[in-house]
């Protein structure tokens, strides 16, 4: 009877070991398959000078070993929130960025508020443009798009993401009119770069009266998502003019590769967590 119990216990442990090593082998192979895909597509965004961007071709980085990738992933199963970005100026070379702290004065806030028309997104866009093109007003306060954006953040009751009946926000109109300073103001005021109208179109879908690459680059630099589809299942690259589409395509490929990698990583994490839970449930710690 004692030998039978020992044999049964031995077989149970052997079975658990087989499950553990088989699961580990499967996970490592999945990770190895993932190592190639995210690096195949070239083209990413280099951000310069508060929001300008350009598409560049990046060399394929060296891949870490599958075991190292798995170890890092297991140690980061609980994902921490990304640190908020701060406004900074690149001082060049290897020096650390210099953080610029801007505090609007009460007088500036009051003067801007008196000039704003927040009755509609288009009216707000127009009034912001009027402020930025008033040379005396700009010179008086050394006003920039970034500073004006911070002022708008502090105005109670102002919603820079308000939408009209068609779902268009101020950012749609700023891009449509090619007003780069107005667009930057909206962004620094907290406007949603990927806000969608009733046709599920983000500002990048909006047809410009005059093509302005700067507004396109600014939207991309601040997180415009080229993988989003509108109500007709089209991407921004499919409706953009040919010259802008040429700028967008390599960045879209890079974003789609990153999205695919993220989805695969999330699925892998779920599988690993389930495997760990199963091992713990069987009594292996």
* CATH 4th-level superfamily of the largest domain: Ankyrin repeat-containing domain
The rounded distance between the terminal residues' Cα atoms is: 29 Å
Provide the residue-averaged pLDDT.
Answer: 75
Strands, count = 4
Low-pLDDT ranges = 34-63, 73-92
Number of continuous helical runs: 11
- Main sheet: strands, sense, barrel: 2 strands, antiparallel
Percent in strands? under 5%
**Residues in helices, as a percent range:** 40-55%
Reading off the top of the CATH hierarchy, the class of the largest domain is best stated as Mainly Alpha
Global shape: elongated
How do the helices and strands line up, and which of them pair or pack?
Blueprint: H1 2-36, E1 44-48, E2 52-56, H2 66-74, E3 88-89, E4 98-99, H3 106-115, H4 121-132, H5 135-141, H6 145-153, H7 170-176, H8 180-188, H9 213-221, H10 236-239, H11 242-281
Antiparallel strand pairs: 1-2, 3-4
């Amino acid at each position: 009877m004692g030998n039978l119990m020992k044999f049964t216990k031995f077989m149970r442990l052997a079975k658990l070991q087989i499950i553990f090593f088989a699961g580990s082998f499967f996970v490592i192979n999945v990770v190895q398959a993932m190592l190639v895909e995210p690096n195949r597509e070239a083209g990413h965004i280099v951000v310069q000078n508060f929001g300008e961007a350009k598409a560049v071709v990046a060399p394929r980085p060296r891949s870490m070993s599958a075991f190292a990738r798995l170890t890092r992933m297991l140690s980061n199963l609980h994902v921490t929130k990304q640190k908020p970005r701060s406004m900074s100026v690149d001082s060049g070379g290897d020096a650390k960025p210099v953080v610029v702290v801007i505090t609007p004065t009460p007088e500036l806030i009051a003067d801007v508020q008196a000039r704003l028309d927040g009755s509609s997104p288009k009216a707000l866009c127009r009034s912001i443009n009027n402020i930025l093109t008033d040379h005396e007003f700009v010179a008086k306060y050394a006003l920039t798009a970034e500073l004006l954006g911070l002022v708008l953040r502090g105005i109670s009751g102002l919603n820079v993401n308000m939408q009209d009946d068609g779902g268009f926000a101020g950012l749609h109109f700023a891009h449509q009119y090619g007003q780069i300073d107005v667009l930057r103001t909206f962004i620094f005021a907290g406007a949603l770069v990927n806000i969608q109208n009733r046709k599920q179109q983000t500002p990048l879908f909006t047809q410009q009266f005059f093509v302005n690459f700067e507004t396109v680059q600014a939207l991309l630099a601040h997180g415009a998502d080229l993988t989003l589809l509108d109500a007709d299942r089209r991407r921004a690259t499919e409706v953009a003019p040919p010259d802008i589409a040429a700028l967008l395509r390599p960045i879209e490929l890079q974003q789609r590769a990153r999205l695919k990698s993220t989805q695969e990583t999330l699925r892998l994490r779920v599988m690993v967590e389930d495997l760990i839970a199963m091992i713990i449930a069987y009594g292996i710690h």
